[in-house]
Design brief:
Blueprint (H helix, E strand, L loop, with lengths): L3 E2 L2 E5 L2 E5 L7 E7 L2 E11 L2 E6 L11 E8 L1 E3 L8 E3 L15 E3 L16 E2 L4 H4 L4 E2 L3 E6 L5 H11 L4 E9 L1 H13 L6 E7 L4 H20 L3 E7 L1 H14 L13 H9 L3 E2 L5 E9 L8 H9 L2 E6 L2 E2 L5 E2 L13 H23 L6 H18 L7 H15 L2 H4 L3 H7 L7
Parallel strand pairs: 9-15, 13-18, 13-19, 14-15, 14-16, 16-18
Antiparallel strand pairs: 1-7, 2-3, 3-6, 4-5, 4-7, 5-6, 8-10, 11-12, 17-18, 19-20, 19-21
Helix pairs in contact: 2-3, 4-5, 6-7, 8-9, 9-10
Length: about 425
Amino acid sequence: MHKIYTNIIQISGDVITVEAEGIGYLEIAEVSTNHGKSLAQVIRIDEKKVSLQVFAGSRGVSTGDKVRFLGHTMRVASGEELLGRVFNGSGMSMDKGPQLTDNLIETGKPSVNPVKRVIPGKMIRTGIPMIDVFNSLVESQKLPIFSIAGEPYNDVLARIAIQAEVDTIILGGMGLKYDDYLFFRDILEEHGALSRSILFIHTASDPVVECLLVPDISLAVAENFALAGKRVLVLLTDMTNFADALKEISITMEQVPSNRGYPGDLYSQLASRYEKAVDFEGAGSITILAATTMPGDDVTHPVPDNTGYITEGQFYLKGGVIEPFGSLSRLKQQVNGKTREDHRTIMDTMIQLFANYRDSLEKQAMGFQMSSWDKKLLRYGKIFEDKMMSLKVNIPLEKALDQGWHILAECFSTEETGVRKAIIGKYWPKDGKN
């Protein structure tokens, strides 16, 4: 039987402070008021003073109300019953399905011991050439999508969700507009992917603490599925909203702020979530893709800056396309040598020529005279942008590689590409130039 406390000594925003003993960090409590019951989570312990963030907000809470600590951290249901369902940030049903109370698992557990991890080596195909060809997504990788507000990062996540070759999709939405939530739900349902998906949604109007719970709940359920042998892709959007929720709570707790007001442990808070990406030996895997908006398109902002030290590269979404020179998958070399022998050749050659195209474009803008080579590059760059960079292009990897060869043959001679003759002889289009 858990002891009930009635000595609430302070109410500040949605945070209440109680005098209690033997309480653990992140422990869950039940707050009983005249209006009903609400859950709260321990966010600070200072000797006997225990501060809790009330999920539903502190409105209606008085100093004489009852607080009962439950003796465990946040729990969420797991298992096949979750598939096709939508839940809020505290794991409660948002759809018309029943509340799930069986097979409860605790959230926020430590990440997997590196010794128990398998070295990443399996590609996840997405149907997006700028990912599959140039910055391959690898199973158990952790990658952010750096972007700014207004860019179609949620569209990219949704497209990856319906096309990625994985067993289970878990979407963790933080601070979403209601329209964005409906967009994800409807597009997954329309493409028949909802039945293998689980959605944990925190909208902008929901309590701040639920925003903090979404990654932990999503990753706890993902780990449960991965241990059962499933390849799980976790999509998180937007991690900047998560960091802003941390900032808001730290201000409420009167903690000493760090860079731009964010808490000093921002790096650790982000790392503890991203490090959940893992490939289990003899079981499944967890791969994490997380949208991270950059205020003012500033990559030195604390959230993307800290994220870059944790993750294995990034996709940089700018101008509605995945920018080749801002994007990087540090694990792509683990897989693109196992796909097709010309994969690395196409990747390196096309990117080098596209870099030359950008130089020619700059020369043209400065009024320099264009050489015949510059004109070839300008033509090549436009075709590359239309047939490879555009997010409208939706083709398998092998077709994208073939298309790369056709683009090269359309714009250059074999000698101008610098590709080895052995590869040219095997893959250069028969109707191409010689």
